[in-house]
Amino acid sequence: MKLFNFRKFLKEISRKNAIILLIISLGLVYMLFDQKGLIQRLHLAGEKASLENRIELLRKENKSMQAEILKLQTSDKEIERIAREKYFMHRNGEEVIKVEPK
Predict the structure, then answer these.
(1) DSSP summary character for residue 2
(2) Alpha carbon 65 to chain centroid, angstroms
(3) Quick check: helix, strand or coil at residue 36?
(4) Most buried of the four, 3, 41, 54, 86, by CB within 10 Å?
(5) How much is the pTM?
(6) What distance lies between CA 90 and its chain's CA centroid?
(7) What is the pLDDT along the chain (102 residues), one digit of tens a residue?
């Protein structure tokens, strides 16, 4: 099996074909690696998909927070529950028993 001889290849192609091949090669390089090229476009498409997923997650989080705000605006029991769980508040006369995990 013979190895590809680049010099022989260059001698065999005509000047016109060499120029056409060079132009096509430069065009392909430009299309792939330019700022608006294929590689940049693929990178930006991936980034766009990632940002759209993040937006969807933030919208869901926003909806749950809006629901919690509505509950807190309409229910005193919900406010009391939050105060007891997060801030360890208690009513007058209640005994607080702290249980520490082992």
Answers:
(1) P
(2) 23
(3) coil
(4) 41
(5) 0.54
(6) 44
(7) 456 777 777 677 777 787 888 899 888 887 777 777 788 888 899 999 999 999 999 999 999 999 999 998 998 888 888 888 888 788 888 887 778 887
